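stage 2 :: seqdesign
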């Protein structure tokens, strides 16, 4: 698996940060915020879209206001990949699904109305394999802006001591 690395300049990073903050911003306002003309910022956004860096624009919704009183993380043990994918596709309560390494094969984020609804959804996955469920109490950080990776921004937490 190879990660594509493209060159992103300061303007691209600022454009991505602004669009992740507010995807409904006009190109004229975006240009003002990043100090580029409207045509220049429009062209950069188009290039980021064509390159697949910007995959789409979507509304961020409030689960609670939609009637979902509980959000939970469900860890799903080892089981045949295709069976889990099929069940995820048939379960609209699954809002995010990650195939992971480690003791579990899957980590799912689900949104349900109440505890009986949680039980019904989790039971579907329990039939396949063992599960472990955690209810989300609060989420102090969600949908954080993701900017181009820069190795120079990585700082060690502690200074390593060598014998020299």
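stage 2 :: out
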């Amino acid at each position: 698996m190879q990660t594509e690395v493209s060159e992103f300049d300061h303007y691209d990073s600022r454009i991505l940060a602004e669009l992740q903050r507010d995807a409904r911003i006009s190109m004229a306002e975006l240009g003002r915020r990043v100090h580029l003309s409207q045509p220049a910022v429009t062209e950069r956004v188009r290039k980021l879209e064509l390159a697949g860096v910007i995959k789409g624009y979507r509304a961020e919704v409030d689960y609670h206001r939609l009637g979902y009183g509980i959000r939970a993380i469900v860890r799903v043990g080892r089981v045949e990949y295709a069976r889990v994918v099929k069940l995820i596709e048939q379960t609209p309560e699954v809002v995010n699904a990650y195939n992971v390494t480690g003791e579990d094969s899957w980590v799912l984020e689900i949104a349900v109305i109440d505890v009986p609804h949680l039980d019904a959804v989790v039971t579907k996955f329990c039939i396949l394999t063992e599960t472990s469920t955690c209810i989300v109490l609060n989420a102090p950080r969600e949908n954080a802006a993701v900017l181009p990776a820069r190795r120079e921004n990585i700082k060690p937490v502690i200074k390593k001591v060598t014998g020299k």
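stage 3 :: structure notes
- The helical segments are 10-21, 27-34, 38-50, 81-89, 115-126.
- The domain at 64-135 is CATH 3.30.70.920 (Alpha-Beta Plaits).
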